[in-house]
Amino acid sequence: DQQVKQNSPSLSVQEGRISILNCDYTNSMFDYFLWYKKYPAEGPTFLISISSIKDKNEDGRFTVFLNKSAKHLSLHIVPSQPGDSAVYFCAAKTNTGNQFYFGTGTSLTVIP
Amino acid sequence: DARVTQTPRHKVTEMGQEVTMRCQPILGHNTVFWYRQTMMQGLELLAYFRNRAPLDDSGMPKDRFSAEMPDATLATLKIQPSEPRDSAVYFCASGLSHWTSSGNTIYFGEGSWLTVV
Known about the structure:
The complex is a heterodimer of chains A (112) and B (117).
Chain A: E1 4-5, E2 10-14, E3 19-25, E4 30-38, E5 45-51, E6 56-59, E7 62-67, E8 72-77, E9 86-94, E10 101-102, E11 106-111
Chain B: E1 5-7, E2 10-13, E3 19-24, E4 31-38, E5 42-50, E6 53-56, E7 65-71, E8 74-79, E9 88-95, E10 106-108, E11 112-116
């Protein structure tokens, strides 16, 4: 049972444009959400996170938006750069648990 | 530069053989996770430990997989006997368990690429 879903397996964006990656979740007990970035032949690396008490968190070119009522979060990358081409995983956890639930990933390609 | 270290990076083995993957978590981290990456399931949790105690291994096929933490600096994932369907990338991750979620982050190793022929 996939509690965190990334319904778009892939996304292509022109360099300089905005990339929007989406993630949906089913467990209303999730209170902390993270995005990881993964290059081929490497492990996922932490990118940005957001607590459920916020609806937006920004770090440079990366912004994560959380819509709790819709159980939806998104990652915005502005402007997109070729080096952003990677697989992006959305993850979530509950306040009481240590387990991180991951989505299936979205492969982003930024076209120069 | 603290990081999670996994060995071996690559392993090709024959069906039926035993495979052991090792992980050295970041010093001071008290939670350790084993994930398997597949195309269909993404990052699939196999097992995780807190303070070396196994908390959840429900994601593992119990008949052939086992996970242990002999000490705080070593986690192992063993497959015996291995099967072709076990071919995947296995990631270890570690983190520091906080009483609140905020600030929790887990850090991944580079993965062990397993091919069972």
